[in-house]
Design brief:
The complex is a heterodimer of chains A (257) and B (304). Chain A has 257 residues and is an alpha/beta fold. Chain A folds into 2 domains: 208 residues, Rossmann fold, CATH 3.40.50; 27 residues, no CATH class. Chain B has 304 residues and is an alpha/beta fold. Chain B has 2 domains: 159 residues, HUPs (Rossmann fold, 3-Layer(aba) Sandwich); 120 residues, TPP-binding domain (Rossmann fold, 3-Layer(aba) Sandwich), CATH 3.40.50. Chain B contains 8 helices and 18 strands. Chain B has a 7-stranded parallel beta sheet, with helices on both faces. Chain B has a 5-stranded parallel beta sheet with strand order 15-14-16-17-18. Chain B is elongated. Chain B starts with a strand and ends with a helix. Strand 12 of chain A pairs antiparallel with strand 10 of chain B, so a sheet runs across the interface.
């Protein structure tokens, strides 16, 4: 069995974002980078499936500049067997369709039985690449899964709907699954596994060899949201803050007498 | 401009979020037609054409059949815009439509500027203004971003669609959320814990403050996913939608999904060490402080 995981490197969302010179994306300066949170669940599920089935190969793929290899190494340390890096210094300019097309150009010849992606990225948040990739490969896709059971031939998964409701769906492999937070508990790479990961295969393919699709959408500009400005910001000494807040609650709400 | 609105139903019951697509279409001045896989006994209220597929025949959400039916309708109506909610239904179905028709898709729209759409990026710390390069655009709308000024009214002209079901995917059933526990939607005061509480032991501070205010405690998704709080305490689009008299967000940065579930609260206090946290966008008061110092001080003051 062959399993593919698609991951993305994103900035830490606690960062203070600045706009880049072109005004079309955030500046990549002074940011801490990490694996897209949703993708950690995808990696964990793929590695668990391999552990369950015994015989399987787990390939981790990422599109982006050279630095995404650092994040791919985490996936390798979590248990992926080898990495395929689609090298593109300008991946941030590409839309979901172009990214999905590049991945499909690679994955189409590989015959993967199961593909796991995050349900969305934390930076762009389009929630499109997984479904588009499945469509381009002619595979069924189930989005936003929070439970995954597989016997090697069919998968029974739970999709998260609204208000705590879940839909249970069964489908044959090959198929693609987009992973929601809480699907499993992603493991922390151990030091021995981090060392082992350094020796695992990690090849880079230039995107020009794979990518041919035109963009479906373009970003005109990116900006900071307009501050609503209505909110009051309180700062300072704790006891003073306490008094200020209690006074406001007495004045503005009916919950304090 | 012609817009096709995709309404949503579950077990034959129309989901009210469907009206948000109508609200958006009216704001952009589009001529509307609607599509629904649902029940004739619970139709959306509007004056216009509704293409209806009977959910008794289609069954619960089946992406292949929904897509097939939709392509039939799009072919006939030739809209320039297809509008869905950014829900578990919308984000699943929208890319399938876009791919099938080589359309541009724009996800989680919160606003528009002419033909360009405004969408959040980086957990709403940024906004992206996007436009499509194609004749057909598929968009999904952020929950709560658009709403009708008046109660919906009208009677649609129903055109029934013939259903054929053949799918690789088999719907087994629904799993309801665990019953019992707290009903946050009835609480007048909710004090919620976010990832910023750092460790599960600190949840006690949240509970104490909730008690001092005569309310219940809630939690953001990461806190529930970490197993620090029960799912029935989760506030947000995948948990409970709440609108108490007072909502106190402790160490919650303000993920879009969380804010969708609490922004209609009457008064919102956020306590956070980061004065730029997105939760500040909806908070009436943002207290910039360390929770571990501020919460016990506030609780003691309220109890005193």
């Amino acid at each position: 069995m062959k399993i593919l995981i698609c991951i993305k490197q994103v900035p830490d969302m606690e960062s203070r974002f600045k706009i880049n010179a072109a005004g079309t994306w955030y500046s990549d300066q002074d940011l801490a980078w990490r694996m897209n949170e949703y993708d950690e669940f995808a990696v964990e599920q793929a590695v668990k499936l391999r552990e369950q089935l015994g015989e399987a190969e787990v390939v981790v793929l990422s599109v982006g500049p050279d630095k995404v290899k650092e994040t791919m190494k985490k996936a390798l340390a979590m248990g992926a067997d080898r990495g395929v890096h689609i090298h593109d210094e300008a991946s941030y300019e590409k839309d979901s369709f172009q990214i999905a097309s590049a991945i499909a150009a690679y994955a189409g010849e590989q015959g993967f039985d199961a593909i796991f992606t995050g349900m969305q990225s934390q930076d762009r948040g389009s929630a499109q690449v997984g479904v588009l990739l499945a469509g381009l490969l002619g595979l069924p896709a189930v989005t936003t899964i929070v439970d995954f059971v597989c016997d090697g031939k069919t998968a029974t998964v739970k999709r998260e709907l609204e208000g705590g409701l879940k839909a249970v769906v069964k489908l044959p492999l090959p198929a693609l699954f987009t992973c929601q937070l809480g699907l499993n508990t992603p493991r922390y790479p151990t030091l021995p596994n981090i060392m082992k990961a350094k020796k695992k295969e990690l090849v880079s393919l230039p995107i020009a060899d794979l990518h041919t699709a035109e963009a479906m959408t373009t970003t005109n500009l990116i900006r900071l949201p307009a501050k609503r400005g209505a909110g009051l910001i309180l700062e300072g000494d704790i006891s003073q803050l306490t008094e200020q807040l209690v006074a406001i609650l007495k004045d503005k709400t009916a919950v304090l007498k | 401009m012609k817009a096709l609105l995709i309404a949503e139903s579950r077990q034959g019951k129309l989901l009210t979020g469907s009206y948000e697509t109508l609200a958006f279409a009216r704001q952009v001045g589009a001529e509307v037609t609607m599509f629904l896989v649902g029940s004739e006994s619970d139709l959306p209220k509007f004056d216009g054409r509704l293409y209806l597929a009977d959910y008794n025949e289609v069954g619960e959400y089946n992406p292949e059949e929904h897509l097939r039916l939709l392509l039939e309708v799009i072919n006939k109506e030739k809209p320039q815009l297809v509008i869905l909610s950014h829900s578990s239904y919308g984000w699943d179905l929208a890319p399938r439509i876009a791919l099938a028709l080589q359309a541009g898709q724009i996800s989680e729209v919160v606003d528009f500027q002419g033909a360009s759409m405004v969408v959040p990026a980086c957990n709403a710390k940024l906004q992206r203004v996007v436009q499509t390069q194609k004749e057909l655009t598929v968009i999904t709308l952020q929950a709560g971003a658009f709403s009708l000024a008046d109660d919906p009214s009208g009677v649609p002209t129903v055109e029934k669609l013939a259903v054929q079901v053949a799918s690789k995917m088999e719907f087994i059933g629904y799993e309801e959320p665990e019953a019992g526990g707290v009903d946050l939607s009835k609480a007048e005061v909710i004090v919620s814990a976010g990832r910023g509480i750092g460790k599960p032991e600190n949840l006690a501070m949240i509970e104490s403050l909730a008690k001092a205010l005569g309310g219940e405690y809630g939690a953001s998704r990461p806190v529930v996913d970490s197993g620090w709080a029960e799912h029935n305490r989760q506030v947000g689009s995948t948990g409970q939608m709440v609108s108490p008299k007072l909502y106190v967000a402790c160490g919650i940065s303000g993920a879009i999904q969380h804010m969708a579930g609490m922004k209609k609260s009457e008064f919102i206090v956020a306590i956070n060490t980061d004065r730029d946290a997105p939760i500040g966008e909806v908070a009436d008061v943002l207290v910039v402080a360390d929770l571990k110092q501020f919460l016990p001080a506030l609780t003691t003051r309220l109890e005193g």
